[in-house]
Design goal:
single chain, 359 residues, alpha/beta, four-stranded parallel beta sheet, 14 strands, binds D-glutamic acid
Amino acid sequence: MLFHKSVRATSALFGFLFLLVTAAQAQTAKLPNVTILATGGTIAGTGATSTTTVGYTAATVGVQALIQAVPEMTKVANVTGEQVFQIASENMGNEHWLQLAKRVNVLLGQPNVDGIVITHGTDTLEETAYFLNLVVKSRKPVVLVGSMRPSTALSADGPINLYNAVNLAGSPAAVGKGVLVAMNDQIHAARDVTKANTTTADTFRAAELGMIGYIQGGKPYFYREVTRKHTVETEFDISRLDALPQVDVAYAYANVGAVAVNALVAAGAKGLVHAGVGNGSLPARTKPALVAAREKGVVIVRSSRVGQGIVARNGEANDDQLDFVVADTLSPQKARILLMLALTKTSNTKEIQRMFYTY
Ligand code: DGL
């Protein structure tokens, strides 16, 4: 009698455990699969004390520790992590971008990956985001995220930023939106976002063109659509590239001359972005060096250091006559990225100008 009771109790227990496991598997099966690609930055940084918010060390915490610090993520996505590299983002190079972009495209080609989060230093986050916006060949979400306070700080912003980014990357609403930046409960499009403050948590802005949505309670809310082409709509393919053309930026200011332009051309620049004053104006002592560079075959793009607004073609310079390109509203650092990719396709300035009005 006792034996039969224990058998019944045991089988009931096994039955209950089976149901529990099946329910858990069903729950996991419903969650999106999000891969976190870690590259370093402050989000992976550590400081000497909990009040150290400047003078900390960036790029010290590994991807698994970042994931373990936010267990809430396991309730919203099946998260896996890869440490692609571990650097402070001021040291980001073209070779890092090619490595990262190729890994992103391989992962997004896998049916069991629904979205990707890239943890990144904030200093060049906007540049990596725009580069990926032009070379990722998938409509699946790619979300860049960082933090302005190290992981050891009081009110560190990394964990909540990462939780939001994973929610966004796993959200069907983010599909087809291009590469996104999720910081400080806000969603930005890669093309127009920029780091606008050296240290505050609300640093990422798109001052005049605006952010495209919010993340509230882990849920994304979109209010705008981007109008420029991105990801699957672009003509750029980096899959067979192991280097990018050398393109540099020359900054304009009162009293500037031609030294920087001449030095960059002598060092082998194939393209040069001029960060002009105002509407992309060319200082008289710089212009001859730019003209000479163009005559040597260097493609010149007129951008502006101002930060907002359109650099008008044939406005402050006769671009038709000089055979220069204008950057439209792209910042100098983003104009450099588009010019690099354009030069992998053509050196025809009319074609390149079309690209600046397309992406
Ligand atoms: N060294 C800077 C970087 O990696 C720290 C800034 C940050 O990540 O917020 O971009």
